Amino acid sequence: MPLAFALSPFIVLGVGALLLMLAESFAKQRAGLALGATIIFLATAACSLGLWWFGVDHIEGLEALSPWLVIDRFSLFFFALLCLGGALASLLAGGYLPEHNLDRGEFYALLLFSTFGAMMLAASGDLLTLFLGLETMSIGAYALTAFRRASPRSAEGALKYFLLGSFAAALMLYGFALLYGATGHTDLAGIASSIAQLAAHTPNPDAPVIAAAARAPMILLALVLVLASLAFKVSAVPFHMWTPDAYEGAPTPATTFMAVVVKGGAFAMLMRLLLTAFHDPQSASWSSGWPPALAMISVLTMTVANLIAGRQESVKRMLAYSSIAHAGYLLVGVVASIRSDDGAGSVLFYLLTYTASTAGAFGALILCGSKGAEAVSYEDLAGIGRRHPAAALPFALFLLSLAGVPPTAGFFGKWFVFRASMDAGLHWLTVLAFLNSVLGAYYYLRVLVFMYMREPAAGAPVATPMRSGYVTAALIASAVLVLILGLAPGKSLDIALAAASELGHS
Amino acid sequence: MIPTEHYVALSAILFAIGGVGFLVRRNVISALMSIEIMLNAVNIALVAFNRAQPIAHTGQMFSFFLIAAEAAEVAVGLAIVISLFRIRRTVRTDDADLLKN
Known about the structure:
The structure holds 2 protein chains of 2 kinds.
Chain A: H1 2-6, H2 8-26, H3 33-54, H4 73-99, H5 106-123, H6 127-145, H7 152-183, H8 188-199, H9 212-233, H10 242-249, H11 252-277, H12 290-309, H13 315-336, H14 343-368, H15 384-387, H16 389-403, H17 409-423, H18 427-453, H19 469-487, H20 490-501
Chain B: H1 4-24, H2 28-49, H3 58-88
């Protein structure tokens, strides 16, 4: 029983997804499916929060799961975060799919199964479960991207996503194989201790076949391969090429899901791998080699994404580049976490603010476009602030939060990440990240200018907002989150710090 | 007995062939096959490294999981290729160029 309690988030989500799939094939009408998926997501999140409140330390028999699944506060935080993202995405889908004649129930089952994979990623303490979680998450995301079957753009975006995604998975797997050969372990803690032994020149009894001299280069090569594929998965420059295409081609709720849940799962994996397996406890410094590389990637990611985002004509594509830029800010926090105790916690808090603001921004974009005419370009949004203030106001709030304007959630997300990187002594990185967030404000404010200060050109098709209780509910939920996190961030920051403090000690 | 280094060298060569094939070929089916070659290189490496552990079978078990998961991934990939082919009548990545900056 206690073990089933510890696994309850997985059980609720998995069984719920199967039941939803059954219900979809027998149900006469699809209207309740979005609500059902949302309830399953929220129930899973409630289970995780219940486990957190009960205290995972009190549960006996958790060792039976290790090293494959690690149920600690870090995992539980991510369970709740990913389920929040999934719930918002399924609410948006409940309004979007019927409006655009895509109302097929498998969308919700795919959302649930893909989130299951993301949760597995967050909880994995072994390369095997890490790989299985990654595949479960990615396969669902590929199918979601291709969901608009009649649209050539959807198929093209899905093809690019799939090809580059499986190439990245192959790179990562070869890195895993090399790690296994050099250390004799597939569990992250075992890999870490084996690397420490190698650094201290003590013989490792687990890998006698490989000569000791060959092990260090193998680990280095494995680290390069794993870093490259992690950069693919979190869509960091120069491995970001698939992101704008897949985000633009996918139906907007699927885009929301990819920007929020898939990215969150990828960051959980990145932190588990780098901060557990490659975190050298003997010398908490640059010795393990990846922080400078990751710092370069993060600077490139922020700068390139912000420069290209300003030149987009499509708001959806601009938001795709904005999500790449946010991956850059998040990577700053990951780099800082090697020297600062607050680094990892600030990343988790940033992910929370990013989830609420991004899901809200895509939701507002969905709301602005009605049947047959999705609002995608800046011109489509011209003058909507005067004609439909109820649709424009939440959009403005979420864009300000993404830009990092106080008192919204995005401001404190950036503030804590930048403060952690200053604490870590990364002054130049902090300055570059700050300059980038100023640069990023340009294209968010451009949307506001179009919404409030422009009128549509004469004869241009005028977008009318759709009406949907589901989308409204999602917007209200994320607006409340954005405001709470922006006005009183203290409590949730403490939770994020507590969650991150367990990383690397398990 | 063939030394383990030979297996590792074979897997490295296969991985390089697959990687170059993926980057060079413009046909989606060829790209998929290149990825499969890379994954088989991973399988060979995992099984070869497992020889260091005569009792534990971690590497072999890993490669079984890999075979199963990749079969599922390729099934989804081929479905995407077919849906693109139905609309555009092409399987060349050069022709998939609707989405641009």
